[in-house]
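input
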Amino acid sequence: MVSKTLSQVKISVLDLAIVRDGGNPSDTFKNSLDLAQKAEKWGYERFWLAEHHNMQGVASSATVVLIGHIASGTSTIRVGSGGIMLPNHAPLVVAEQFGTLATLFPNRIDLGLGRAPGTDQFTAAALKRDEHAAMEFPANVEELQLYFSEGNKNGRVRAIPGEGLDIPIWILGSSTDSAYLAASLGLPYAFASHFAPAQLYKALTIYRNNFKPSDKLKKPYVIACVNVIAGDTDYEAQKLATSFKRLFWGIITGKREQLKPPVKPEDDFRDAMEEAALQQMTQYTFIGGPEKIKDDLNRFIEFAQIDELMVSSAIYEHEARLRSFEILSKLHKEK
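output
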C-alpha cells in the first residue's frame, strides 16, 4: 500500500452543530451554513452533520432538515449525514427523506448510517427505539438499499422519491462491528476516531481484509474523522483547545454543557488521572500552528492509510473556527 500525505487525500467537514455558551441554535445554524460556504470555497469535499438527541450543546437533532438547509445555501460541496442513526427510524422514511434531498440536490447528497442511538437510554425510549434495534441494523441497511434500487419498481412498498437514485450509502463505525458490515456489503466506511480512537487500526484492517467489491464500490474506501484545532501559533491553538477539552471532559463525566469560552492553557488544570482519561478519548486530536498540524496529520495519514480525512473542530469563537479550517485547507494545497 502506497503511503499518502495530507495533500493526497480528500478533506471534509463534520459539523456537530454545537451550541456555544451564551448562544442558541439559531446562531449555530447560521454559523454552520457560513462554514459550509467557506469550506466549499476552500476545496473541502463534503460537509456532514450528525444526529444527536437531548443534548443542550448539540442542535443537530433534525439532521435531515439541516442537510437541506446547508445544501440549499451551497452549490458544489457534497452534503450528508455522519450519520443518521438508522435504528431510530424506519428504513422507508429514511429512503423517502434522502430521496427527496437527492431529487432537490442531484449528485450532492451522502447518506452515512450508524447503529447507535445518538443519545441516552431514556431518550432512545422516547424515540420509540426498539431494544433490539442495533441487532437489526444490517437487515435495515439492506432494506434501505432495496428501496433505492431500480429493481424494486414492482415492489409492494416503494420509496418515491428515492427509487433508482444514486445516493451513496456509507457505514459509520466506532468499533469493529460495522467494519465487517461495510466490508460484506462493499460500501465505503467512515470511522469515528474523533471520539473513539481505540479500535481505529483494527477496524480498518478488518474492513480492508474482508472487503467484497460491489456494484457501488470496487475497492475499499475509508474516511477517518479526527479533531483539528489549528491556530496561527501553537500557543493560540492550545488556548482555543481548552474549550474543546472542557466539552469532552463533560462527556466523560456525564456533565454535558454548552461549549465554553477558552481560557489560558496554564489555567486549564486537571489532575493526572483526569488528563489521562481525556487523552485516551481524544488520542486523534491535532492541536497547533500550521507546521505542527501538517506534520502530525501526515504521520496520522501514513499510519491509518486513509482515503479521506474528515475534521471536527469544537472552537468557541466562530471566526477562530473558520480560521482553523482555512489553515487546514491551505496545508492541504501544499505539495
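quick obs: The mean pLDDT is 92.
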